[in-house]
Write a structure and sequence with these properties.
Rossmann fold; 3 domains; six-stranded antiparallel sheet; alpha/beta; binds 2-deoxy-2-amino glucitol-6-phosphate; about 625 residues; Glutamine Phosphoribosylpyrophosphate, subunit 1, domain 1; 18 helices; globular
Amino acid sequence: MCGIVGYVGPRSSVEVLLGGLRRLEYRGYDSAGVSLISNDGRLETRKRAGKLDRLVEAIAEHPLDVAHIGIGHTRWATHGAPTDGNAHPHLGGAEQKLSLIHNGIIENFSELKAELLAAGTRFASETDSEVAAHLVAAEYQKSGDLIAAFRSVVNRLHGAFTILVIHQDQPDLVLAARRNAPLVVGLGDGENFLGSDVAAFVEHTKRAISVGQDEIVILRADGVTIEDFAGNPSPHEEFTVDWDASAASKGGWPSFMAKEIADQPQSVGDTLMGRLDSTGAVVLDELAPISDVVANADRIIFVACGTAAYAAEVGKYAFEKWARIVVSVELSHEFRYRDPILTPNTLVVAVSQSGETMDTLMATRYAKEAGCQVLAICNTQGATLARESDAVLYTHAGPEVAVASTKAFTAQIAAMHLLALHMAGIRKALPEAAANQIGRELLKLPAKVTEVLASAGSMAELGKSFGDAKSVLFLGRNVGYPIALEGALKLKEIAYIHAEGFAAGELKHGPIALVEQGQPVIVIVPSPADSDSLHPKVISNIQEIRARGAKVIAIAEVGDGLVSQFAEHVFYVPQIQPMLASILNVIPLQIFAMALANAKGLDVDQPRNLAKSVTVE
Ligand code: AGP
């Protein structure tokens, strides 16, 4: 996912742009660049493939003059390899007085490029973005009105785009437009900012505006105008960012992932805060806009991808057990191509940390077009998903910078448990006393997460010792099954080794054939107190794989003496209401994966090939 920064004001624009791009590094990228208009009126551009340090080198080799306006970009390659030439910004027009940056995909760029080539335009890159740069320059040359030219062009573009433009002739103006891609405005005093998200400018201002679909921003130091693609003024609301710049920095931790794993008592606590009263009763005022469907729903469909989908899989057990409602979890990218059966009484819940995952956005739009109401469970204020849903249940995990999701995952589960209890109450599916007792158990989670983290050193040591592992299997049952899937995903994502999660009961239906001498298998063991007596079944599963040579690491509830007779290693987590154990059980798996990846010398924050949010389908 590309990073975008724009600035106009009294500061040195190159410093604002590079600082903003640094804060957006987590979005994943493979080239970077900046354009600015110097105080003596010249458009200057520096761009390089690779990480930001290479761009800084390019600027050191060819210093930029003082400037107070500019645009900056980190690119995650879609059209064209990550080369210096394909890096943004792209220059438009024969005189190269216009500079443009773009996040997204212009789906009709081929026909537009053909039109430009026929007019004699020469291209310097293979990108779809450069087409937009030349189009705006050509329109501006015809009309002499840069804003009108920009508006005309963005109306011709299909697909997903956040575009920023500056032009040498207008050194006080940054133009921006968004369709199906994120863009926020930062409001300063005598200065204004643009960013893919608030991390781009939060060190300078916490006042922000989320730009809506098909809107144009006219940004000057002394003011911001927002209009629709037809040029009409667009209403917009200002919001205040609820975290500060230090929250988006490592704060002394060796990696963002380590920081975010350690943040989990806070992030789970913040997500629960204000949503449970002292009796344990759930209070979710944010659901008011969808109170009817919440009360009358006969089915819930979760749409999500990756880790967010596994959080939904955990939530499914709670909704079915407590609220007694039919639940299915659909991978967003599969959902709308299945021609799913949807009715106005189907509540669709879209789960997304970033709120910009295109697959989940498209699934949400599909559901709304089918007449469903959509509730978003989202971690990013003002994100596209949040704005397009009928209601939002925000997780309050703070910025999750590492690509591999950890604290957002546990916060999503906490939010889902709140929602399931809320619906159980409304549907009178659970006696109030029982529901409140679970609510009070939820309130114990932050302290129990702290306990898990305090003893997690043994899992880090184990992770290191498996640095040569070629494959690790994960087994779980009931709510432990999605945790097995999530544990496997963490290992795949950051340690680049084969890892697979299975429902423990599935072993004898095939996967046990994978077990050979020395095969590491991590097993999430249910509580011995679990009323469904899954515990003895999982103990049997452990015996079966041990008999075939597996090296078993068990995640088990403190006091479970039986499991230690069958597993090489046991990591104990505190006792809690069994449905809530998933938040505790996943933390040792996060730590195991991070330690193993660190032992391999890998970058746990920005794993290869991955971006923090997948904003293209
Ligand atoms: C999780 O570690 C991955 N980074 C990935 O699976 C992620 O959960 C998925 O892409 C969904 O992202 P979202 O929550 O921002 O929609």
